[in-house]
Amino acid sequence: MKVAVSTNDGKEITKDHFGDGEFFLIYELGDKLTLLEKRKNTSPPEEEHGSKEKAKGISDILSDIPIFLGYQFGPNIMRIKDKFLPVVSRERNIGKALELLKKYEDKIKEELRNPRGRVIIMDEGGIKIVEVKNAKGF
């Protein structure tokens, strides 16, 4: 199971929207967590907040990654939610957030088998699966 993490420094998840990170760390979640690669965020800058060009750029960069792990997502969550599984982590430390992802791996894999359109919100206390009807709160 591959996951892309948005970051600026390689230690913490980007505090801004997922698509605003300088690069994406790509991990494989198997028996152990493996860092596969680091991809530069080459998506175009937004001329307007939530532009579809930005969403397309992120989708192209991460087309082979099913799970996006971020601290928050902007209006473009409405565009990516049907192709990818966004996971909102309330933990910004990448190592700890990946441990949580591993902890909830079975539920996340189950959600990957379901039709897209929902978001997982996770923290130490558990996960919540939310249907996305608008971009507020993500």
Structure in words:
The chain has four helices and seven strands; from the N terminus they run βββαβαβααββ. With about 140 residues, the protein is of the alpha/beta class. The protein has a single domain, classed as Nucleotidyltransferase, domain 5, CATH 3.30.420.130. A seven-stranded mixed β-sheet has the order 3-2-1-4-5-6-7, with helices on one face. Helix 2 links the parallel strand 4 and strand 5. The longest helix has 10 residues. The relative contact order is 0.19.
List keywords for this structure.
138 residues, alpha/beta, Nucleotidyltransferase, domain 5, seven-stranded mixed beta sheet, 4 helices, 7 strands, 24% helix
